[in-house]
């Protein structure tokens, strides 16, 4: 079972990642977000930052649908994310190894190409 501390540790281990000051977690590479805590919005209520759910960049609609359909207990979406290459990830449903893969893949899709070449296939800087 993964948690917000795991997200933080994994994201900050990647090259040139910055954490944006927030009530949860929010990580960027090259000024592009790749994983952040879910800002849950319910009508008539204030927004709540959910650190047990991560918003994860997945690249495109096909990958998004594959995750949503293949693992509906782990990944979900809301109408606010329709048309965006983002999924919501229930952190308690993944182990740290899977979270490492997901966070690293999101980073790879958002990082400048020169940085991606500096990372080996296991997500470790060379």
How would you describe this structure to a colleague?
The chain contains four helices and six strands; from the N terminus they run αββββαββαα. With 126 residues, it is an alpha+beta fold. The chain has a single domain (4-116), classed as Aspartate Aminotransferase, domain 1, CATH 3.90.1150. The protein has a six-stranded antiparallel beta sheet with strand order 1-2-3-4-6-5.
Mean pLDDT: 93
Q: What is the overall shape?
A: globular
The radius of gyration is: 14 Å
Strand segment count = 6
Neighbour order of strands in the largest sheet = 1-2-3-4-6-5
Determine and state the CATH class. Answer: Alpha Beta
Secondary-structure arrangement, i.e. CATH architecture:
Alpha-Beta Complex
Instruction: Please name the CATH topology.
Output: Aspartate Aminotransferase, domain 1
SSE class: alpha+beta
Q: Approximately how much beta-strand content do the residues carry?
A: 25-35%
Total domains: 1
Please count the helical segments.
4
CA-CA gap between termini: 28 Å
Q: Helix and strand string, N-terminal first? A: HEEEEHEEHH
Helix content bin: 25-40%
The largest pleated sheet is described as: 6 strands, antiparallel
Enumerate the spans where pLDDT stays under 50 for 5 or more consecutive residues.
none
């Amino acid at each position: 079972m993964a948690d917000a501390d795991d997200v933080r540790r994994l994201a900050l281990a990647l090259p040139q990642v910055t954490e944006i000051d927030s009530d949860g977690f929010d990580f960027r590479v090259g000024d592009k977000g790749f994983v952040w805590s879910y800002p849950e919005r319910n009508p008539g209520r204030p927004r709540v930052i959910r650190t047990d759910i991560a918003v994860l960049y997945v690249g495109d609609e096909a990958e998004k649908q594959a995750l949503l359909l293949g693992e509906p207990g782990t990944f979900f979406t809301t109408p606010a994310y329709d048309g965006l290459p983002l999924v919501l990830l229930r952190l308690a449903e993944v182990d740290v190894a899977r979270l490492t893969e997901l966070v690293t893949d999101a980073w790879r899709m958002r990082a400048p190409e020169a940085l991606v070449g500096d990372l080996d296939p296991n997500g470790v800087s060379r």
